[in-house]
């Protein structure tokens, strides 16, 4: 099924109801509200403009935008014309942006005015011709040019469920991010699974401060709401005061967030003179990184609400969830969602009995088929069983409770660092650090961090004295700032094994001169 067909079911329930209530928590974009029918009118106007600009079925449309109604409009308009949406992390800098634009080769990129400087640096230089860049802040000018060009659902090119809806870039083990190709059917499987597992209702109102360029905000949040015809209170970012005010005022029923946000809410509420009631809230969800049990319990103590923790991935959408009705166990991600099959295997790929720790493998109609233009990476990410079924190697280490069947995630097979729900691959940071004059070798590891869960720390072998201020300025120009090492440790050499591979577990922890 095409996702637009699913969204039409939600829209037609109550076309005059609010689909998006938007507020810019930072200020400049103000507030805006769109009904489901108003949203569709805008989508059709944008779709007509896209076609006029030459966007064709199968073309990629990149969105380098913060959370704002135009993100939703542009995305749905891209689907209308049969295009594939490529969301781009807004924190990405020149190098990361350039990589995605070269890899996905979008025909159209939609940005905000403030991003012109970085695009001027790369378009026509690092990025080949053929890319049209439009600013959302000047949309009236290019939308007007298409006025009079009618677009209706009858204009839609036939797009089947097995065709691609999204390419979502996710941190790559090889230093550069890779695009997970998601069809309409993949996304639909996650959405329909969650609608039933979490008992979504048309009257639901979701407060959504998470970025729409990641699966959590986009698929779990926006898609479920559009499919159900529920309202989204879309925010540009997280603000504890505003969140508590909205959630306690009766203006929301659902809240989805990452553990760092729950940590901040617990701190905020613990310091409040009086903790307000969250009586209208029927569900608080956490995911994207492990929720510490003490935060889980502290949140319940303060609010009387028990968080539902779930587990997902960009490549697969949502996989596991604690129950909506039933015990939500801190430190676990619950059981597989409808239609998701899971195995836990040892290093040789053999199934392990419940209770033993191994790598989690997944299969299901939610699981992607391939990375964009990367057959080798795709091949390395799947194994086949004796029946020929293809299983995705998640890289997550897990154990299943023999009695309840609940799964606990224990860590990751690869070196991935998850900071506040954002992924950092050490290799990418290491490669960047060694391009700085004087840094000969770098090893980046994740260390526990009270605020972010994990934070990157860099061990450096240098041939001369490094000016840390210069280094930081350099790093900021190269990488999204959440990837910057929080601490630098200067060492004489990196511990290596006989094969020359860095033994990160042997790096001296704590400050070293
Ligand atoms: C922001 N900063 C971070 C950071 N977020 N640093 C480390 N880790 C993070 N996660 C840094 C910025 O780089 C900036 O640094 C400074 O903090 C202020 O930025 P900000 O934008 O004002 O930050 P803030 O609004 O406080 O953001 C924190 C946050 C945000 C937790 C709200 O990180 C967030 O929304 N995280 C969720 C990401 C997400 O949706 N992940 C899901 C992926 S999908 P400087 O130095 O420039 O000032 C997935 C699958 C699944 O994982 O299961 O869901
Ligand atoms: P991403 O690549 O950004 O899609 O992040 C996916 C990864 O986030 C997974 O492979 C897990 O390692 C991690 N993750 C998601 N949800 C949870 C959770 N509830 N607990 C622990 N880790 C999680």
Automatic annotation (TrEMBL):
**Domain AMP-binding enzyme C-terminal: start-end pairs:** 428-501
Report the residue ranges that make up the AMP-dependent synthetase/ligase domain in this protein: 12-372
Q: Which Gene3D superfamilies match?
A: 3.30.300.30, N-terminal domain of ligase-like
**GO biological process assignments:** fatty acid metabolic process
Supply the InterPro entries for this chain: AMP-bd_C, AMP-bd_C_sf, AMP-binding_CS, AMP-dep_synth/lig_dom, ANL_N_sf
SUPFAM superfamilies documented for this protein? Acetyl-CoA synthetase-like
Which Gene Ontology terms cover its molecular function? Answer: medium-chain fatty acid-CoA ligase activity
Q: Which Pfam families is this protein grouped with? A: AMP-binding (PF00501), AMP-binding_C (PF13193)
Q: Which PROSITE patterns match?
A: AMP_BINDING (PS00455)
Family designation: Belongs to the ATP-dependent AMP-binding enzyme family.
PANTHER family from the UniProt entry: ACYL-COA SYNTHETASE, ACYL-COA SYNTHETASE FAMILY MEMBER 3
Put simply, this protein is called AMP-binding protein
Please spell out the taxonomic lineage of the organism that makes this protein.
Bacteria, Bacillati, Chloroflexota, Caldilineae, Caldilineales
